[in-house]
Amino acid sequence: MYSIGLLILFPLLAGIAVARAPDNAIRAQRVRISAGAIAIATLLLTGLHLGLGPEFYAIPGWLHATLDGFFRLAGVALALVLLYFCRHIVAREWYIPVLILLQAGLMLSAELAPVHPEVAHPFYIDSFTLLMALIVGVVGGLICLHAVQYMRDYHAHEPEVADRQPAFYFVIFLFLAAMFGIVFTNHLTWLFVFWEVTTLCSFWLISYSGTDEAIRNGFRALGLNLIGGVTFAAAIAWLTYGPGLHTWELDRLVAAGSALALIPAALIAVAGLAKSAQLPFSSWLLGAMVAPTPVSALLHSSTMVKAGVFLLVKLSPVFYDTVAGLLLSLIGGVTFLVTSLVAVNQRNAKRVLAYSTIANLGLIVMCAGVGTAAAMWAAILLILFHAVAKALLFLAVGTTEHLIGSRDIEDMEGLVYRRPEMAAMLLVGILGMFLAPFGMLLSKYTTFQAFLNMDVMPGDGLLLAAILAFGSAPTLFFWSKWMGKLVAMPRRPRPSTEPIARDELIALGALTVITYVACALFPLADTVFVIPYTHYLAALGLIPDIQAVIPWETVWLMTLMLGGLFVLPLLFWLKPPRFAEVSGYLSGANVDGSASYRGAMGAERMVESRGYYMTGFFHETTLLRYGGLGTAALIALMIGGATL
């Protein structure tokens, strides 16, 4: 229990120490030390508790009462801080302060009730929370390390942006502290405070540059996440005043089963959908692209969006074999399909990553709604691979943008020749997203099995399986298209041979190695983190113990094949003359190698290559509009169905 408290408190103290650093050099050193310490502490905690099974912790009465008062005051303080930031909102954002007041009112009405549920075990650890803690601590720490040099370069390239790095790092570390709180807290009202701290931090980080666009996108993120905050607060009020189940403990909520827990679980699920940027809430994640790249990586990979799917997977047993669970899966499925199609249209690399993030989270939500052991198995490992590979991709795109001056995929043509180290890292990240064992093959195989075994209503499993199939095709298309541009013949002058900053190189190299290791040792991750969690839930009778059955010879054969594919990017580090440019065959009429050719009447024509974006087939605005309307209707049906 004390190690959990230390892990939550240390990032906060580190943020204060970094913010109070007297100069940039000392600040950078404190960031490096703090990021390393957080990662090491997370690894030690995992080593100490691995294999011990779920553990629930009680605390002394005086400490419990003190923390109750602290979190109550913290909730009020959060509401006041958010209202203070709302003093500059425009008329169309009038709903944001209303949501803040409504949320605060619901929480205070529950916490000040004459009689409210007692919480015996406010903290806990299980194998799933350990995996999440590793993602937050290790991946989050590497993102902080990458930010050290990146933020210096950012302000050098954006001199008009006020340099607020002390506050920036304080908010980043506060963010990590809140994430650890979400992961380890069993007390729902305390978890809610940590949940809203991430909302506040994301609003501030998205608005960091201070431009009108950044502030507008920050308020959009705040407003959409506050909708989820209100439903979360409503769930706590229901658990306080409503009929049936009265508890503020997450484990007891899950153990109560669908009959008693479905209404509060559906309300909390809306908060999870908003936090994980599912339709119709997805626009806040796209707006987060205006923030510096470390912020995008932090929000999209290891923290903000993972909080949403983490809570949904935790609640997954409640949704097993229910109409509300089917509707939750459909919300994720529609999001997966729509955003995968929209990603095909995108040339901006960060927008491709944003839409693919939303799509992958949609796939995890589909699994969470099913609620079987096989579906949860796929969902948890999708969380792992997405966190590692997407963090690598976001940071690599940020570094590449500084090196070549663009984040347009078309401008990355021939990067394998121009900056081979960056091309290799990008390729590893892309392969980790759609060719890693649980990114494309085994997880989707298992997910198909889980869908086809559903029996909520006729045809439900077939519908979800069809959505998965049609959503996977554009995923393969846009990732392959990006890979093709990276290895295509270079058409632009070589950029300067500016070296990559040490901090950025360490972070990118570490994430590349982690991606390789995660792919190579995925059976170990399965055995250590996932199976113990699903078996524990099955032993309690919360989910049917139908585990994914995949022959080991198939697993090892796939591992061998994928290992060969992952070795290919390493070749891009080989020095010339091992890599030699050759002329393409252009009807035998090449001019200046493969750069141009002679066409009709001897006219010289330049060779050009462009990716397919299919804007005539898939209209981003139309798809998002109807996808948003459809998922909004499904959310209403989910809550209504749970109530009925």
TrEMBL record:
Subcellular location per the Swiss-Prot or TrEMBL entry: Endomembrane system; Membrane
Topological relation to the membrane, as annotated: Multi-pass membrane protein
Entry GO terms, CC: endomembrane system; membrane
Keyword DNA-binding part of the UniProt annotation: no
Keyword Kinase tagged: no
The NADH:quinone oxidoreductase/Mrp antiporter transmembrane domain, residue ranges: 186-456
Transmembrane regions listed in the UniProt entry: 6-21, 33-50, 70-87, 94-115, 127-145, 166-184, 190-210, 222-241, 253-274, 281-299, 319-345, 352-371, 377-397, 422-442, 462-484, 505-534, 554-574, 623-642
Main subcellular location of this protein, as a coarse class: membrane
Domain NADH-Ubiquinone oxidoreductase (complex I) chain 5 N-terminal: 122-153
Keywords from the named record: Membrane, Transmembrane, Transmembrane helix
The protein's name in its UniProt record: Na+/H+ antiporter subunit A
Organism name: Allochromatium palmeri
